[in-house]
Amino acid sequence: MSVNQQAHTGPPYGQPQPGYQGYQQPAYGGQSLPGVPQAQYGAYNGPVPGYQQPVPPQGYFPSLGFPSKGSPVSLNSDTSSLAPNFIGSLRAPPTSGAPPPASGASHPSGHLAYSQFEHGDVQNGIPASAAPMQRPPASQPFLPGSAPTPVSQIPTFQQYGAPPASVQQLRNHMAGMTIGGTAASAPPPAGLGYGVGPSSYPPTTGAPRPPAMPGPPLPGQTVAGPPSSQPNHVSSPPPPSTMAGLHPGPPMSGLHGPPPPTHPPQPGYQMQQNGSFGQMRGPPPNYGGAYPGAPNYGSPPGPPPPPKRLDPDSIPSPQLNELPPQQKPRHRIDPDAIPSPIQVIEDDRNNRGSEPFVTGVRGQVPPLVTTNFLVKDQGNASPRYIRCTSYNIPCTSDMAKQSQVPLAAVIKPLAALPPEETVPYLVDHGESGPVRCNRCKAYMCPFMQFIEGGRRFQCCFCSCVTEVPPHYFQHLDHTGKRVDFYDRPELSLGSYEFLATVDYCKNNKFPSPPAFIFMIDVSYNAVKSGLVRLICEELKSLLDYLPREGNMEESAIRVGFVTYNKVLHFYNVKSSLAQPQMMVVSDVADMFVPLLDGFLVNVNESRTVIASLLDQIPEMFADTRETETVFAPVIQAGLEALKAAECAGKLFIFHTSLPIAEAPGKLKNRDDRKLINTDKEKTLFQPQTSFYNNLAKDCVAQGCCVDLFLFPNQYLDVATLGVVPYQTGGSIFKYAYFQLETDQYRFLNDLRRDVQKEVGFDAVMRVRTSTGIRATDFFGAFYMSNTTDVEMAGLDCDKTITVEFKHDDKLSEDSGALLQCALLYTSCAGQRRLRIHNLSLNCCTQLADLYRNCETDTLINYLAKYAYRGVLSSPVKTVRDALINQCAQILACYRKNCASPSSAGQLILPECMKLLPVYLNCVLKSDVLQPGPEVTTDDRAYVRQLVTSMDVAETNVFFYPRLLPLTKADVDSDSLPAAIRNSEERLSKGDIYLLENGLNIFVWVGVNVQQGLIQNLFGVSSFSQISNALSTLPVLENPFSKKVRSIVDMLQGQRSRYMKLIIVKQEDKLEMLFKHFLVEDKSLSGGASYVDFLCHMHKEIRQLLS
Ligand SMILES: [Zn+2]
After folding, report:
1. Tens of pLDDT, residues 141-152
2. Which of 254, 373, 691, 739 keeps 20 to 30 A from 104, CA to CA?
């Protein structure tokens, strides 16, 4: 324990001077950030009126007194025992003599696999994204008197003088909404006919993969014209008039009133003004016609104007046909009149992106995840660490049940911060350890109340009074605040770390530094594809970039190497050896590690031997004919090695096939798409054996985290192979039909980032709450052996845990509600630490306050994870229905309790939730819940596990991808072109677009794009010459090419995985894949369009209300 340990002689937290800015921020790679001039750490110089006090600073009422924000919108070997075969120098392993491609699949060419990524400007060891690598180490010890941190200085609370952002937001929103007849800016309907092509997804059976990307359609997948399957929702119902209209925010009680007279006319959208919800239920699915007799709200009398445009999706309903001709206008909701994600995102950027988010005030709703903003910690954890579904929670469980709004927090304990923000300080309280409440064991935090002159403190979570330990005593000032308040992170900040004492260590022993073990599949497919050589070449340089702590010159992490097919090969790479030694374990039934000394080594000490090994591995197996692999014994071998070394660590397993060789954990091919939409569909997501669950449990106990890189050419049962990575806090990366040429950059970028990123080991997380609520449910990649502790063998900076809370008592508006997330973990240098995040929330007795302080992006993150777990135990349809029902209840409760009764026929959505329907629809249409024919069972299992660990920003872009018109980009500016909505009708044939969802980047090229643009971007002279086999954009010296490539690089840098770049030409076969991501449109798998779904939700809400 020599790292960053501060001797504690004297006050552990040293002098207040010159403030927190005084510590250096060595960047992750060891480089320092430029010292930005900074005045005193502003937050600590002045009074901070916000926290510990329920009353916000004067003039700023983040959650009270706003106008209503309601928004109307409208291994086999029998062979004996192992014989550690000592080989003086390396020699080839035994081969089974099987003919090469026996169990392997045929070798594909240019195949487009689902959710893969792509290349970039690759620099060895340095990820394409500069940002993540420049971050400082996980924690900074507080070093009084050191250089200033580059935290941008802002005057404390200065921003409170401005009107609350959301008011402005509301105005902007209102200004931005248009109603049907007036929206002359509506894009022309896109040509319907560009033919949807065959799926380019991999086949689901073990059959040879389909031909290269531009190949012929797959049988049965060619779809021409409208999809045969109809969404299970109503087709083109007539809009309730207000969907197109602009009503003032519905009204909290007392604010009822007629719609503003300024209401523009709404030709075409007649309002149901009869105040009766029930009426709408009559013709159930198709409330398809006009609403006879409904007066137009503010629109001139007279015959309805002609339809603004034809609805390509609409199917005349019987009801409609029965209407008299004059009442049969084709009503169509104008997509521009329904809540637009793009508008909401833009408004939030404009309103909240310019000023830092200061966390001093309880219950503040942070800016959206899509807004760039700085965070200044003044007592509550940054939204980068914790986001909540609502920042104002109901005081009683009855209210919570009535609203059906889930109370959940999405927590990313080790989140990476932008360079401008300060990483949590490391506090050392000496041998006695962190100060904690005697009863509930909560850690010292800004919300603890010191009493009796500072001799005791009352716990803000359980109210128990605890003596302040003598070494921690400090006097109080006249306000009752400790005089060292601003000198101690644990008293003044929302997030900080404690150095843990030996009491927090396993077996009361400080941990050893962790180890990384690289385990490489060397079966026929892995060798033949060039993968084995690629991995070995990469490791030679990558090993110099293992995570380091602070200013350490070299990483404390030791490394080990294993190769395998149906037997395992261990390597002795001890520095004293002239050549590496291989030991073969062919008895995989009872795995053990044949060598202890020389298996896990320091990279620098064994550099020559490791380099020699990595040079030899590809040669040794170059002529292998072994196609079968084992899998569980590989994990067991890594686990046993870590056990023997008495350390935690991570296994990097590179695997290619279903493990069918005789061994523990052997699997069968059980893929069966016929189970889709049956009660047995859930089995597709469940592991086929409980063997891996037990193995995962053993791994967690040892702190053995597994990261799995899969390179399948056919089904390999991700649902089962993923169990151990998933339960140990690890990651899965999948590169279907891996081809060296097109996929290596993407894989290498992922590998580099995965090896280098910040990770904690042997982690346990507990969330404590103040009296009245408690954490009841958890979602994410972890293991739980009891109901409160979330255990993760490894936890990296990208992993998120979603926690749901339930009431167990009443809450009070005065005291609010508090959360404290404590993560105990071992750093990459083997230091045991506690990372603490605190968050205070408001509590309300009025439902309206709840609905005004919700965050839909976080709500969707929770709902998606809830649903994705549900498919393990319930039929998918049941899960979908439950989702729809819950959201309808949420919105109906709002409608009933918070909106004006005068607006009966309207669909009224809370301002904070106006995107709930569009986002919910995206979740419902996702591959896990509604797979198209092209989505494989492995894809679904893969995505299901991925989403479960995503943070809010990732789920946001995953479910509602970002679509950018590249041809509208300003080549002279650093900014991105304004995003547009995900609908085909927003695409122009003359433009080029980029769509990204965190896993893929599509570049769509319209058929009428100017030749010059094509030349500039692709370096070819015509549309027809553009190759959609490109996996990167050519590097061309012209402004447009540079701009587009910089956009792509920037987007790559923002995501935790390297996205696969796919070029899609309009009217090309690949376009169907692209269209799958135009989530506002009706999907080929039967998913409803946004408009249809909104109407469906409206109907559901009406039913609940009647
Ligand atoms: Zn307590």
Report:
1. 444 334 333 333
2. 691
